[in-house]
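2.7 Reproducibility. Because tokenized structures are sensitive to small changes in the input, we list the exact sequence used for CST complex subunit CTC1, including any N-terminal residues retained from the expression construct. No trimming or masking was applied before prediction.
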Amino acid sequence: PQLPFRIPCKKRSKLTVAGELAKLGPLLCIHRKTFFFLFLKSFTSAVWVPVLVQQPNQLAWHHILQLGHRYTITGLSMSSLKKSGHRMFVTGVSSCLLPYCAEQVREQPLDSVWQGESTQSSSPEAAEQLSDSLQLGVEEERPGSTKESKIISYVGTVTKILNVQAGLFLLDNEVCLCLAYQQLLNSARGLRPGACVELIDVHLLQKPLVSFPFVVLGACLSSTVVLKSFSRLSTPYQPPASSGNLYLQLLFRYNLGMPLYLWMVSLLEMFEDRFSCFFGRCRLLLRSTHRNPGAAEKFLVPLMQAVVPDTEEARDIYNEILAKIHQCPLQK
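Resulting structure tokens (single pass, no recycling of outputs):
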């Protein structure tokens, strides 16, 4: 997935926005640029607005923000995406994250701010308390004959690592958590057996593959994964590959849904079991580079080209994170 990071903003007064943290997106690193989205909710309605955090000195906010808490963010600019028209607030170098203080907030309709009609109250000294004039973040059902996955929340304990390279973890000995569709938080350092995780807005997929024995909870870019407590067990840390991860490369290259992804994982695991003895180390077998594909990639790519339709659209991470009507590869 590609993300244009230099979003042009017109020179306007910096804004300050106050609201309740309704959703916290994952930390993403694309083309060596790290960023995340957070969503602030109005105190009086269910409306959310997105805030893009991309300044290096502000990435630590991701580790201290707590869902349901009220915050004030200063020094924000407004921006919109050319292709989709999605509007958002963007932090600047001088932006600060502060606890919410009601005495410093003056309410103003949000639509006037989006349209550039704000007056003196749009200055950094006056916080913009969100109103319900912009309908962002409200889920609606999409029409269609295909069955869509349910979006749920879940709290469970990691009991087994099924395949760390593929982002598959077993919760409570009965539910598979798939984190392949969003980058693993902190290289999965906290996701050891015994750790407790809270999953918010994840996709529930019942039997996505006949041969797969577990119900799957899939986290997309609109899902929130919170590590509630670290493991007290002396289980070793299994680091995922930092580069050349064939599972994830093929997932994003072909924009696979969950059934095809689990099928691909089973093929790679079978290939690894049968031929790893000839390569000495599994990483040599499953390694993948742009100019030097490994044996597993040479085996699997022709199969993927035969199975995956050519009309498969590229993954649109903007729509996945920001769209009013949710769209992602885990819906069906």
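Residues 246-322 form one domain.
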